[in-house]
Amino acid sequence: MKKIEAIVRKTKFEEVRAALHEADIDFLSWWEVKGQGTARQGLIFRGIAYDVNSVARMYISFVVRDQNVEKSINAILESAYTGESGDGRIFVSDIGESIRIRTKDRGDESLYNK
Question: Which one, 8, 50, 59, 96, has the greatest CB density within 10 A?
Answer without folding.
Answer: 8
